[in-house]
Amino acid sequence: MKRNEFNAKHPRTTKSLKEFVISYEKSLAPDVYEKFLNSLDAEIGNAHDEIMALPPGPARARKLQELVEEEIRKNSKFPSTCSKGCSACCHLEVEITNYESEILTELLENGHPIDKDRLKSQSRRELQDPVWKNGVRNVENQCVFLGADKACSIYDQRPVMCRRHAVTSAPINCELPDGKISLCYYPRVDVLIVAASEDPDLRVGPLAKMILFS
Ligand code: SF4
Predict the structure, then answer these.
(1) What domain count does the chain have?
(2) pTM score, two decimals?
(3) Residue 162 Cβ < 6 Å to ligand 1
(4) What is the reported pLDDT for 45?
């Protein structure tokens, strides 16, 4: 399989997986590169089948979350410096799927406490609204699920986007406007996300909008 065939077959490939695929093209012989793309294609297909075997909705979201967790656990070459209470990334825009939105909506319906005014105000923002860049300690940017103890109040149910965000640089750098941040990159996590995104019933959007309007 050539790169253009791979891209055509997987139009929802993440930006980071695209870059990963391009980076290998430069270092592998053409026949080896084709085999590499074939194997990525097969991995996406296998993961897609595994996820699609479940009914649309929370079951598919939980399967993806489980596969992503397993992948990160198995392939974590460098220990992440993220820890409970360092919550800078919980002040950034988070995108979730409609299936994850169902999980979170159920939690809210069952009385999980959040700041509903902040949820409404965040839901009025456009995707990638510049206001998200206005400081990681701006309370208006704080995720509604971040607890007063600066820990995620829905840790076991948190979206995939939160699970895959693992930093290896010093935590203080996440707080600084120009802090240099290094992130762990797990290519197979991208493979799993692409596989899940090829579900025709799946939609993705900003957390607050998805909870209130999806
Ligand atoms: S869901 Fe949890 S981990 Fe994700 S941004 Fe919100 S508080 Fe942070």
Answers:
(1) 1
(2) 0.93
(3) yes
(4) 98
